[in-house]
From TrEMBL:
Transmembrane segments: 12-33, 53-73, 80-99, 111-131, 138-157, 169-188, 200-219, 231-248, 268-293, 299-317, 329-349, 361-380, 457-475
Species, as recorded: Robertmurraya kyonggiensis
Keyword Transport: yes
Annotated PROSITE patterns: MFS
Protein name: DHA2 family efflux MFS transporter permease subunit
Domain Major facilitator superfamily (MFS) profile: 15-480
Stored PANTHER family: MAJOR FACILITATOR SUPERFAMILY MULTIDRUG TRANSPORTER MFSC
Superkingdom per UniProt: Bacteria
An annotated Gene Ontology molecular function: transmembrane transporter activity
Principal location class: membrane
Keywords noted in UniProt: Cell membrane, Membrane, Transmembrane, Transmembrane helix, Transport
Length: 500
């Protein structure tokens, strides 16, 4: 459907700025929490399998709600959606900051997720309809710079706060900022939207929730409960069945909740495939590096955050540069070079030892993130560029949903490989001993077995990244496709965004 933002000589920078600030604080909140998980485990007396639901639950809510955002963007104004999203996120932040037991903390996280799920597709859609194709790469590059600044700041800031304050301070720190952003949006966003006569197909919403939710829950549970758990072998098939039913139902509806026709456009389908594969490989660094650094090397949370800071900064600073390069040379060259770097560095990570220097790890991680910066945004933008304008909300919703699903699959796969290979290596090492090991020797054996398990998981991640590299050679520069469907009358769909 034709969206409300008119492409003029001067895009609505005020509206985009407000949305970007809201998205930034949501991203910052996620990166703040990762390093705090061990502290939360200790204080609330919970296990790793339980605390991981602060991340998995967030991902689950996103996976359930994001498919509905295409409908919400078509139905409601940017102002209304932003205020609802920021309001939910703020309430969730307050609840989580007051939590003294795990259920309350998890409730706060899920409220945060319900707001975050709306924020990202909304911002992406506004960016797409505000800039012409030839300027979209540069605009997306600036967008990437702002969002990648959150991962750059988050781990280091979180490590410092955790070492000096209670983990709840992470939420107390975010709360006043979220309130200010909500008030800025309330007073500055003035866009209007004429009434659109569409309604949500609730049966599609149910199928989507069970489908995407079941798949996300199943794969997320596999990492902690094992593949032979009923939480896995029941929920994943049920999720797949409901998802297939959901897709078939969308093809028969006049106004589908999530339009799978986006996959008829080859560059969008290709970009989605590459993004999913890269997402799976990306989780190797996000999951395995912190485990290696903190668990095996005993590096403090603050130093662990500082180790990952140069990589996050490299990704943030390269984002606008890659955006301008994308406008000039297209996505294929950037993606191929970036994925070559990713494959090589991920493979090098599969040769970790217990005595690698801090500087070596920092540089290797920074180069890997530098390569990744050349892949995600250019590939995604190139795919979205081929869609006709009315499918922008569905394209952004589809991309965000697939990112959640591939993230869950990648997490489950790599955690399972690490766990299984750690157990296998420990058994083999124990058999090779000629005498009963001392307590210190057993601790060293377990550490070495975990190291080998992490290396094996990184090796699989390098193979996954190599698959994305092969796919990247088929990328072609996209131009907007002609829409075969006649546009609806302007009176029905035209919306006006007035900039302050």
């Amino acid at each position: 459907m034709e969206q409300s933002l008119k492409k003029t000589d001067r895009p609505p920078y005020g509206i985009i700025a407000v949305l970007m600030i809201g998205a930034f604080i949501a991203f910052l909140n996620n990166t703040l929490l990762n390093i705090a998980l061990p502290s939360i485990m200790v204080e609330l007396e919970i296990e790793a399998a339980t605390v991981q639901w602060l991340t998995t639950g967030f991902m689950l809510v996103n996976g359930i709600l994001i498919p509905a955002t295409a409908f919400l963007i078509e139905k409601y104004s940017v102002r209304r959606l932003f205020l609802v999203a920021m309001g939910l996120f703020t309430i969730g932040t307050v609840v989580a900051g007051m939590a003294h037991d795990f259920p309350v903390l998890l409730t706060g996280r899920m409220l945060q997720a319900s707001g975050s799920a709306i924020m990202m597709p909304l911002l992406m859609n506004v960016m797409l309809v505000s800039f012409p194709v030839e300027k979209r790469g540069a605009a997306m590059g600036v967008f990437g710079l702002i969002l990648m600044a959150a991962p750059a700041i988050g781990p280091t800031l979180s490590g410092w706060i955790i070492e000096h304050y209670d983990w709840r301070m992470l939420f107390h720190f975010v709360t006043p900022i979220a309130v200010v952003i909500f008030l800025i949006g309330f007073f500055l966003l003035k866009d209007k939207k004429e009434k659109v006569n569409i309604s949500l197909d609730f049966f599609s919403l149910i199928l989507s929730s069970i489908g995407f939710g079941g798949i996300l829950y199943g794969f997320s549970s596999a990492g902690s409960k094992g593949w032979d758990s009923p939480h896995v072998y029941i929920t994943i098939p049920v999720g797949v069945i409901c998802l297939v039913w959901f897709i078939l139902r969308q093809s028969k509806l006049e106004r589908p909740m999530l339009n799978f026709q986006v996959f008829k456009y080859p560059m969008f389908a290709l970009s989605s495939s590459i993004a999913m594969v890269v997402n799976m490989a990306m989780f190797a660094g996000m999951l395995l590096v912190p485990i290696y650094v903190q668990t095996l090397r005993g590096i403090s949370p603050l130093d662990a955050g500082l180790l990952m800071l140069p990589g996050a900064l490299a990704m943030a600073l390269m984002s606008p540069i890659n955006g301008r390069l994308f406008d000039k040379v297209g996505g294929r060259i950037l993606a191929v070079i970036g994925l070559v770097i990713m494959v090589v560095t991920t493979y090098l990570f599969s040769n970790l030892t217990l005595d690698l220097s801090y500087t070596h790890l920092m540089l290797l991680h920074a180069v890997r993130m530098f390569g990744m910066s050349m892949v995600m945004m250019p590939v995604s933008t190139n795919g979205l560029n081929q869609l006709p304008r009315r499918l922008y909300p569905h394209g952004t919703a589809m991309n965000n949903t697939l990112n959640q699903v591939s993230g869950a699959i990648g997490t489950a796969l790599l955690v399972t490989i690490m766990s299984n290979r750690t157990e296998t290596h420990a058994t083999e090492m124990a058999k090779s001993l000629t005498a009963p090991p001392t307590e210190a020797a057993m601790a060293q054996l377990k550490a070495q077995a975990m190291l080998e398990g992490i290396n094996d998981a990184f090796f699989v991640a390098s193979i996954i990244a190599a698959v994305a590299l092969v796919l990247a050679f088929f990328i072609k520069r996209s131009t907007p496709a002609e829409d075969p469907i006649q546009e609806k009358p302007k009176a029905q769909v035209n919306t006006k965004l007035a900039e302050n």
